[in-house]
Design goal:
17 helices; binds fe (ii) ion; mainly alpha; two-stranded antiparallel sheet; Ribonucleotide Reductase, subunit A; single chain; 387 residues
Length: 387
């Protein structure tokens, strides 16, 4: 018993009257909002069920574990991972832990994470890449940088559209991670000291289309399509000197591409949402500008020794597999879509490349790095090239 707590005497009758007033007011406001809600005239705005102490949709603990808990477990700090950038986001304990971890790293890893200053990092980039190569890296990554801005906008929007406590917890972490991706990538690209290009018309069409897509269709546009593109770019470039921090972006994006499958397993799309022709066409309408990006980036990618069509085949295969798995039907099934697009890629290459031999671009895998490939195997078990 706690003797420090001394109960005060109050008017018991007043307590009862107040309880009765609150009880009646509660009945009234909730009835009013139920009626307004039924008439589509407003009603309760929050999709929150205070009686169950859950958001509408329930707890969804497995979503919370797979996305919120895992995100926090894998949360990384720019100050440790890219110490040459101007971030102070690590606590003293995290900084000390990181210093200890540095000692057990391989020479390569240690070199990449040494506490370089920003001028030293810029000098390192100048020694490692020609000006033309720096421009190419920035042009390619800027496409993703603008995509990160939209990922931040769209995930914040989706946060208020998903059901359940676990669903909201998952999206909350995505908002945080997209914010981090945007600001960290922006600083990284600025360190290259070359002009950062605007969005191309194709990125503009793609990302505006995703932002404007209705409801859970945003999960297709963002988490399936744009995230697969981002994942593939990070998988392609995160082994390049100076870009090692992109491995962590890659890891985050892998989790984001897994979200539609996990979320829709608990809150499935209706048959109509999956299959109606307008939705399937709208999805294709988002994929088209992504396809136009492939030849648009061909020149920049070639500067770095990367075949844009190999990359495109690798990305679109991943998009197709994820779309099919989460139930977002396209106008054509993958076994028809991939060969049709492959014929289109080959026709373009035949016209533009000397001595081009027809090949299967959809069998290519452009992600490099053991860890990156292992991360993708987990997401795209059926998508990774068999060879
Ligand atoms: Fe991102
Ligand atoms: Fe993402």
């Amino acid at each position: 018993m706690n003797d420090a707590i001394v109960k005060l005497e109050i008017d018991q009758r007043a307590v009862e009257v107040n309880q009765w007033i609150e009880y009646s007011a509660n009945k009234l406001v909730r009835l009013r909002d139920r009626v307004l809600g039924a008439l589509h005239l407003g009603g309760r705005k929050a999709a929150y069920d205070d009686e169950a102490y859950e958001f509408v949709g329930g707890a969804s603990d497995s979503l919370r574990r797979k996305h919120y808990d895992k995100s926090l477990r894998l949360l990384w700090k720019a100050e440790n991972e890219a110490p040459f950038l101007p971030f102070h986001d690590a606590s003293p304990v995290e900084r000390n832990m990181f210093e200890l971890a540095l000692r057990s790293m391989t020479d390569d890893e240690r070199q990449a994470r040494e506490r370089l200053s920003l001028p030293a990092f810029r000098a390192f980039l100048d020694q490692t890449y020609t000006l033309r190569q720096k421009r190419a890296i920035v042009a390619i990554l800027a496409a993703i940088g603008h995509g990160e801005a939209y990922a931040w906008l769209v995930s914040a929007d989706l946060l208020n559209q998903v059901k359940s406590t676990g669903g909201r917890a998952a999206l909350t972490m995505q908002v945080l991670e997209e914010a981090k991706h945007f600001v960290v990538l922006r600083e990284l690209l600025q360190a290259f000291q070359v002009p950062i290009p605007r969005q191309s018309a194709w990125e503009y069409l793609l990302l505006e289309g995703v932002y404007k897509a209705p409801g859970t269709e945003k999960l297709f546009g963002m988490n399936v399509l744009v995230e697969s593109i981002a994942l593939s770019f990070f998988g392609l470039m995160s082994e390049m000197p100076g870009l090692e921090v992109l491995r962590l972006f890659h890891l985050d994006e892998a989790r984001h591409t897994g979200l539609p499958g996990n979320y829709l397993a608990e809150f499935p799309l209706t048959r109509f949402q999956r299959w109606n022709p307008a939705a399937r066409l709208r999805r294709l309408g988002l994929i088209l500008p992504a396809l136009a990006l492939i030849p648009a980036l061909e020149g920049e990618m070639a500067e770095l020794g990367i075949d844009a069509f190999e990359f495109g085949g690798s990305v679109i295969r991943k998009v197709g597999v994820l779309a099919e798995r989460s139930g977002f039907a396209l106008p054509m099934a993958n076994d028809k879509l991939f060969p049709a697009l492959n014929r289109l890629f080959n026709a373009y290459c035949k016209r533009t490349r000397k001595g081009h031999q027809a090949r299967d671009f959809f069998a290519s895998e452009t992600t490099v790095g053991e860890r990156q490939l292992a991360v993708e195997r987990e997401v795209f078990a059926r998508a990774v090239s068999p060879s």
